Amino acid sequence: MKRTLPAALLALSLAVVAGCDGSGGGGDADQANAATGPITIWLSNNQEELAWGKAMVESWNGQHADQKITAQEIPAGKSSEEVIGAAITAGNAPCLIWNTAPAAIPQFQKQGGLVALDSFDGGAQYIADRTGDTAEQYKSPDGKFYQLPWKSNPVRIIYNKDIFAKAGLDPEKPALATYDEFLTAARKIKSSGAAQAAIYPAPSSEFFQSWFDFYPLFAAETDGNQLVKDNKAQFNTPQGQAVAGFWKTLYDEGLAPKEMYNGDSFADKKAAMAIVGPWAIKVYGDKVKWGTVPVPTSTGKPADQIKTFSDAKNVAMYSACQNRATAWEVIKFATSQEQDGKLLDATGQMPLRKDLQTAYPDYFSKNAAYTPFAEQAARTVEVPNVPNSVAIWQAFRDAYSESVIFGKTPVADAFTGAAEKVDQLASGS
Amino acid sequence: MRRWPNVVRYFLLFLGALIFLFPFYYMLIGSLQSSPDTSVKGAFPTSGLTLDNYKDINERVDLLGSLVNSGIFTGGVLLGTVVFGTVAGYALARLQWRGRGVLFALVLLVQVIPFQLLLIPLYVLIVRGYGLADNYLGMILPFAINTTAVFVFRQFFLQLPDDLFAAARLDGAGEVRILWSVALPLVRPALLTAVLLTFIGPWNEFLWPFLVTKDADLQPLAVSLANYISNVSARAANPFGAILAGACVLAAPAVALFIAFQRQFISSDIGSGVKG
Amino acid sequence: MTTAAPAATKRNRAAGLLGRHPVGMILAAPYAVYLAVIFAYPFGFSVWMSFHDYFFAAPGAVVDHPFVGLDNYKAALTDPAVGQAFKNIVIFLVINVPLTTGLALVLAVALNRVVHARTFLRVSFYVPYVTASVAVVGVWLFLFNSGGLVNSLLGPLAPDPSWLVNEGWAMPVIAFFVTWKQLGFFILLYLAALQNVPNALYEQASVDGANGWQKFWSVTVPAVRSSTALVVILALITGANLFTEPYLLTGGGGPNGASASPVLIMYQRGIQQGEPDFAAALGVILVLGTLVVAYINRRFIEGRD
Question: Where is the signal peptide (chain A) (predicted)?
Answer without folding.
Answer: 1-18
